[in-house]
Amino acid sequence: MPPLQALYRSGHDIALVVTRPPKRRGRRQEPTPSPAAAAAAEMGLAVTSDLTDALHVEADLGVVVAYGERIPDEVLEGRRTVNLHFSLLPRWRGAAPVERAILAGDAETGVCLMDVASEIDAGDVYRRASTAIRPQESADELRGRLCELGIGLLLDALSEGFGDPVPQSGEMTWADKISGSELRIDWTVPADHVLRLVRVGGAWTMLRGRRLRVLEARLATGSGLPGAAGTICLGPRSGGSPAVDAARGRSPAVDVFAGQGGIELVRVQLEGRAPIAARDWVNGARIADGDRFE
Predict the structure, then answer these.
(1) DSSP output for 78-134
(2) Rounded distance, CA 108 to CA 100, Å?
(3) For 163-168, what is the mean pLDDT?
(4) Does the pLDDT value for residue 249 go beyond 60?
């Protein structure tokens, strides 16, 4: 949990860490602590999953990062509580601001250090920082960069003072949590739209009645020829030919036609299996040129 670790390394006194309860994972269903709980334990900090425990600690400031639940008014009363929100508010209030920014094709996003208010993500903003969204950047990669930006904002505010927050202004958009059905790939949309879904994480499609997750992909080169949406094309590697690829021991590219253009599958995961290179999946599953995703 980078913000927690940054506060600890900076010498700030952390009275209590509130995080989600352990989840049961694996075949044995053993309880596994959250990353924040694990980090707090390594630092010897008090940890709880009961938010009302915060009522009984003496602290001048509460810091919220990706908590995901509404904080009751009685917890907010009596001390300043700030939140690091990963968007340029009021655009993308809600649970999935990073993912929604990528899906919408936003050119930039950012992070806001803001007051926690009763209404979700509606508080005034103390500081903000913006950054461009890189063309092939995944949601996890972008979230990591925004976290580092947010840590800088928080540490600067603690060092220099928070000052007066500024009310949010502009058009508000809502960032609902991404549902599993939204992550199903629609091959009739343009290729760059498909890639945005892959970058969000968890994108999936169906072939022969089995679910295939697309973990990594890129725009296919030379895929401008017309083809039925969702059709798999086992073509040469970039700039080559099938004969040249075979002579060099290289497997064909695994391209898929979209509504406009196509994408090259790089890494995939068949349900119940480990992630593998797309070319290995083609060989193992005996995928043929012209096979088509449902």
Answers:
(1) TSEEEEEESSSTTTTEES-HHHHHHHTT-SEEEEEEEE--SSTT-S-EEEEEEEEPP
(2) 12
(3) 96
(4) no
